[in-house]
Amino acid sequence: MKHIIGGKPPLDGAPATNPPAVRLVEVDEDSAGQRLDNFLIRHLKGVPKTHVYRIIRSGEVRINKGRASADTRVEQGDMVRLPPVRVSDKVAEKAERPAPAREFPVLLEDEHLLAIDKPAGVAVHGGSGVSFGVIEQLRQARPQAKLLELVHRLDRETSGILLVAKKRSALTHLQDQFRERETGKTYLALVTGQWAPSNKVIDLPLHKYLQADGERRVRVTSADDPDGMRSITLVKVRQAVPARPLQGLPAMTLLEVTIKTGRTHQIRVHLASQGHPIVGDDKYGDFDLNKRLHKLGLKRMFLHAWRLQFSHPATAERITLNAPLPAELAEFIPSA
Hints:
Order of helices and strands: EEHHEEEEHEEHEEHEEEEEEHHEEH
Shape: elongated
Oligomer: single chain
Mean pLDDT: 89
Structural class: alpha+beta
Low-confidence stretches: 1-19
Strand content: 25-35%
């Protein structure tokens, strides 16, 4: 059984003899300037990307009655022809069971953007075994919103500041800032051991790979590795946490970590490479210590996106956002 996007439903009791319908979609202001492939992916929910590119190449997708390529930029007022496409039962069932609507603590909101304080344990988007994430839940909670798109990402187990664009122009402007390293991203991380205050810069290339079970991992590699990506992390000691022998806990250090590059798992791998893994990290951490911490009530990774600095996409005003440590992390740090 296949489901057709844009198809005409049959009359009750009548066979589905009508051919699927073609749709014409007018490009609005928020979509202006977007690549055609991305425009289609947004409008043809659940259709595999390979099929999207196939219907572009075949000429079934047209802009103002003319053929176009995947990288063609659509403009406001353009009429885009969308052919009927088929999706599997699995995708159709998912569409019938949307993500539960959910709002998140708001740090800043205007007509251009939304900044939220994401809790740990929530993915930013669906995929990789997760049926939905923050962005799908926000879209369900705000059906009137014309556009809600992630500007950047956080790991599922990382809490803190997450930016969402409400206009296409804001999305591209903010993503350009992230790409050009014009933002300031500082995290709070609790690591095992006593971090040397003189260890302020980690400049080590990172290499992504897959384990035998398909799990994604990252490791520090050599400068001559052709697949290595230069990665720079700045570290500042915020608070030394003495050992707590009665609880079986070693000395720890609370760090302010600023990333100059945004590689996958960069902070986690860089800190672990120095012999000081993040407390509670289930991929690169001290697994025996994590078990003890779990019994003591710390059941997540101690990594929090604490501060974010960027230029407002409309006014160019320099914005600084701060998200305080969530209670389950703050309670684990003894008063200085």
